[in-house]
Hints:
10 helices, Rossmann fold, 8 strands, globular, 42% helix, alpha/beta, 12% strand
Amino acid sequence: MSNKAWTHDDIPDQAGKVAIVTGANSGIGLETARYLAVRGARVLLACRSESKANAAMEEIRKSAPSAKLEFVRLDLADLDQVRQFAELILAKEERIDLLINNAGVMVPPESATKQGFELQFGVNHLGHFALTGLLLPRILATPDARIVNVSSQAHRFGKMNFGDLDFKKRGYKAGPAYGQSKLANLLFTFELQRRLDAAGEGVIVTAAHPGWTATNLQQNAGFVERLNPLFGMTPPDGALPTLRAATDPRAIGGDYFGPSGLGQMRGAPRKVGTTKAAKSLSDAAKLWEVSEERTGVRFDLSRAAAA
Length: 307
C-alpha cells in the first residue's frame, strides 16, 4: 500500500451501495455513516434510540443534504432483537455491500445482556457475531461485499478466559472484560475470513481500531476522558481507519487498520499488527464454538450461498 497519508478524500464513490453501520448515532459510527453517505451510499443507521438516530441523520444532512439515510432499531444487548432486525433487513434489502460492526460499550459498571452475558462481551462480540451470521446470506449474494469489525488497542491486554467469560467466578473487572471483548473482535475477524476463503467466497472481512479518539464511549473511563484534549483525535479522524477498512480497494481479507502515529494513538490510517493472541487458531476455533452455542446462530456457508 502507498505511504501517502490516506484521508477522507480517498474514499471511493459508494453510489449504489447499501451500508449498515451499528452504533451510527454518535462518535466514529456517526462519522463513518456520514462519509459513506457523502460518497453516495445508502446508509442504514442501526441504533437503539430512534431519537438519537434522527438527530444523527439531521447532522449528516448538514454535510450531505441529499444523503440516503434510514434508521433501523437494533439493540445488540438482546439477541431476540438482533434476530428481529436481521429478519427485517433480509425481507426488504436486496443487497448488503458493507456491514460495519462498530457499536460497543466500554468499561461500564457490572451489567448483563438480556440473555445474561457480561455486557461488553455480549454487545461487542456476541451481538455482532449473531448479526453477521444472520445477515450473511444477503452479504454473500452481494458482489464485492465487505464486513468490518471495529476492535481496539485494548485487545493487547485482552485474554480469552473460556472458563469464566462473564467474570462470575473471578469477580467483575471492567478493563479486563473490555480487553477480552476487543480481542474477541479480532479472533472473529480472522476466523470468519478463513472460513469464507475455505468456502470459496469472495466476501472480505477487515478490522480497524480508532486509536485514541474522543467520543462518548469513554464516559465510564474518567482518566481517559480527562486526557482527551491532549491526546484524543476528533471523531472524523478517528473514523478514518474504519473507513479505510471498509472502502480501500487495495484492502484484503484479514487486514487490520489503525492510526499511523506513535503508539497508534493518532494519525492517518495504515495497516497495523496485532498480538499473537489475536492470531491464535485454537482460541479462534473455541470462541467460534462458544459463540454459536450462546447465540444459537450457525454460519452455514454452503446453506447461505444457496440462499
